Amino acid sequence: MTAEENNFEFFIKDFIEAFNESDVKYVLFGGIAVNYYGRPRSTLAADIIIEKDENKFKTLEQRLKSNNFLVSNNAILDSVNESTHCSIFWNKDILLRLDIKVPTRLLEEEALLNRKKIKVFDREVFIQIPEEIIIAKLIYASDQDYDDAYSMILRLKDQLNHELLDRLSKREGVQEKLKELLEESKKFSE
Description:
The chain is α+β, with helices and mostly antiparallel strands and 190 residues long. It has helices at 8-21, 31-36, 54-66, 75-81, 106-114, 130-140, 143-156, 162-172, 175-189, and strands at residues 26-29, 45-50, 69-70, 86-90, 93-101, 116-120, 123-127. Helix 1 (8-21) crosses helix 3 (54-66), helix 7 (143-156) packs across helix 9 (175-189) and helix 8 (162-172) packs antiparallel against helix 9 (175-189). The longest helix is centred in the C-terminal third of the chain and has 15 residues, at 175-189.
């Protein structure tokens, strides 16, 4: 492997190809999605929600193996049965990994339904819409999550669907947190 092959771009290309070659419905969320929407930050993992269709897990595992990922048989099914995510490492740089999970809450189910198709490195990939990412970040509420949500609000302020943000924030119990970030973003804009 050459130095230029050992980079994030090739990792992303490999996992996109694996998922697109499988028949599994998926959506990218988390750090890579935040990067796409305008907040550059480092991450070593691609966070992916997949549909809970156990009949498709084997095919996905085979596609991942043929696209340079270290995955054991039934790894995804085992993680689903244990109600956790499955970490799958890239064999060209084991620091880079996929964190795959099935939906465990309504917001994650909606992410699969509302996903948006984009192009990354000339490959089509499905990504979570920004409004859902912001709300998820407010639910999990680490300092990094707040920074991610705030930066997305600042960057996308005129492009966000504020009715959707309001509806989701009420349903998920993060309306006050969202209100604070929106107020803070207005101060920044002035």
